[in-house]
Amino acid sequence: MADPLTLAEVQAARSRIAPYIRPTPLMPARALKQPIPNCEQLWLKLECWQVTGSFKARGAVNKLLSLPLETLQRGIITASGGNHGLAAAYAGWIAKVPATIYLPHNTPEAKAVKLRQWGATVIREGAVWDDANQAALFQAERDRLAYLHPFADPWVIAGQGTITLEILDALPDVDTLLVAIGGGGLISGISLAAKAQRPHLKIIGVEATGAPTLSDSLKARTIVELPSVTTRANTLAPRKTAPINFDIIQSCVDEVVLVTDEQMQTAARWLWFELGIAAELSGAAAIAALQSTAYTPTAQKKVCALVCGAGTDGLP
Length: 316
Description:
alpha/beta; Rossmann fold; 2 domains; six-stranded mixed sheet; four-stranded parallel sheet; 12 helices; 15% strand
């Protein structure tokens, strides 16, 4: 793949992964009992309805299809807060090869159960994703397994960027995209593809106050490793991003805002009550940014909030 990553790679990924992923709905948020103030034109991109319950299937499948057969035969391995692990397990199922997923201990057991249902081997290691990832990297090298990084990989980033292509097909005059940030793979792909086609389209990243990985790094103008993370949104909780993500985010993302776990939970309940959408905390982060006024769009702007993952950890 070319370096730096370009729109052409995102477009190629779209064709490559098409047989294995779902084009997800872009739904107008209408007929609401409790509309979000100052956000009259809101659309939701429902990646919570993607295969395995999150956008992660796009990147994992694109990476899978880049690997030679002889590399795949021994199996694939990764570390995850849950959603990327599910996508990797799905990729292993597609390729009919073993998948090993390392999870930190803060991952909900429901995701471990679902991983096993996809046929993956699940290993718990460490308090947070970074700890689990070190163990996964060690086994990958020892056993010569194909490692699927959840965010610091151009094939993964290109796969996630296919979301932008679908959004712009359905809503070409959208003004603002709100995107949750964990390690930065999702917003890297989305923002790169967006700015390549619509340079003035505003990209707003949303992080948890308990894991401000990119927010702190952007302020410092260099990659910062957090000493700890405290958010319950474990899919938003790596302590450190990677250079490939940081560089794209620096050049393509307009602003990063922070939301609390409580605000994400309020947003998840709003999604469930108003629209019948079961979103995990990270999946509700973009809505939390709007509800809390961490980000307030300009009047009459068309806003798209990405609901990036399904789950029930935000519900009563």
